Amino acid sequence: MSDGRRDGAGGAGPGWEAADALAPAVLAYVGDAAFGLLVRTLVLERCLADGGGGCPGLAELHREVAPLVSAEGQARLLLALWPALLPHEQEVVRRARNAKTRHRPRRAGYLAYRRSTGLEALVGYLYLKGQTDRLVHLLEWGLAQHPHETPGADGTV
């Protein structure tokens, strides 16, 4: 880009230096879209790599992906990833998790919603910084650790 926004990090994503200054809600907005796409891609890659007749139909793929992209699933993933995050990545999560919002979660508990917002902000941050290798590595590792159990009846994570 000719406007100097690139940081030279390489990889996919814009590689914006300005990602550090974006509001947590903006990072989460981008991260929500990037997370959904990356999780679907990783699940699809995993089923293709397994061999044995290819991937299941769309309904089965959706059943596998939906719990991962839900607020509760994202909250559990964040808890699994937390020890592997670098200090500046943890700070991005904290800023987003603690940001004031007027939005009320519809299908998730408050704590799960705040944690999922933190994860989405981290994904958005890494994507916008062009650090997709780091992002994919974290997601692959976290999804391998990620428990697929159903959240409690009260929606807590």
TrEMBL record:
Swiss-Prot/TrEMBL cofactor(s): Mg(2+)
Top-level taxon of the source organism: Bacteria
Similarity field: Belongs to the MrnC RNase family.
Origin species: Geochorda subterranea
Entry-linked Gene3D superfamilies: Ribonuclease III domain (1.10.1520.10)
Gene name, Swiss-Prot/TrEMBL: mrnC
Protein name per Swiss-Prot or TrEMBL: Mini-ribonuclease 3
Complexes and interactors: Homodimer.
Enzyme Commission numbers on file: 3.1.26.-
Annotated keywords: Cytoplasm, Endonuclease, Hydrolase, Magnesium, Nuclease, Ribosome biogenesis, RNA-binding, rRNA processing, rRNA-binding
Domain RNase III: 26-130
Active site: 32
InterPro entries xref list: Mini3_fam (IPR008226), RNase_III_dom (IPR000999), RNase_III_sf (IPR036389)
Chain ranges passing through the membrane: none
Kinase listed as a keyword: no
Role description: Involved in correct processing of both the 5' and 3' ends of 23S rRNA precursor. Processes 30S rRNA precursor transcript even in absence of ribonuclease 3 (Rnc); Rnc processes 30S rRNA into smaller rRNA precursors.
Keyword Zinc among UniProt keywords: no
Subcellular location: Cytoplasm
